[in-house]
Amino acid sequence: MGIKKIGYLVLLYLSLLSCTKDHQDVVETLVYYDQWALVINYTAASCYNCGSWGAPLVHDLEESDNVVAICVHSLSDPMYTPMMLSFKNDRATGGEIPAFWVGDIKTIDEKSTRLAVDLVKSNHPVAGLEISHNILDTTMHVSVKSTFSVASKGDYYLSVFLLEDGIDGSYSTGLYRQTGTLHSYPNDDYTHDFVLRCSSTGSEAYGEKIIENPDKDQVILNEYSFSIKSYPNENIYPVAVLWENNQEGAKPYYKFINAIK
Known about the structure:
By secondary structure, this protein is of the alpha+beta class.
């Protein structure tokens, strides 16, 4: 083989090796963060429409990939929490329930809610979330890791909520009975799921400030403890929501960034 041909092959090999290495470097420095959709459902056990189409919709959405659903029960409902008023202060119901907020989008029916979920999940979030928890006796310990994929200007707040599934909403449960469901006595097996129970910041729905003007690749780790002695361990679980607090322009002032369960 001629010297020129050997030299050409060596240069070609080095060129390919260089391209491969550069490509690997790019892949290694890119971190892909899943965008989750947050679906807030204002609801009540006594609301017929909440049972007839609101409950099936929120269950269907929550069972799909990358969706966190939170059912916020209204005044006079046995599952009411004052956090409802905090949520409504920034994300109004409009006076009717069921009412949905998907991230920062208020929706009025099933079609618009589903479209909003798909739209939110198509975003590229500035931060990704990870969550883990363990239970020791009657205390749940929760860890949340927030990792920013880009440098950002703004104040970021983190909410950690405890939700409960499997609350009996059948015919014989008095105020807990969910009206409007397709299940009627005696084959009545409806349960309330995704019920908002408490948060890391008492009655404040939008959490606590965790970072201002984060850098690219900045990581924030937050730890929380919750007493769960009032809830069945197998039905209670944490979710986390990251917001950007921006008081300029129209509400909501707490702009949705990401969520995790």
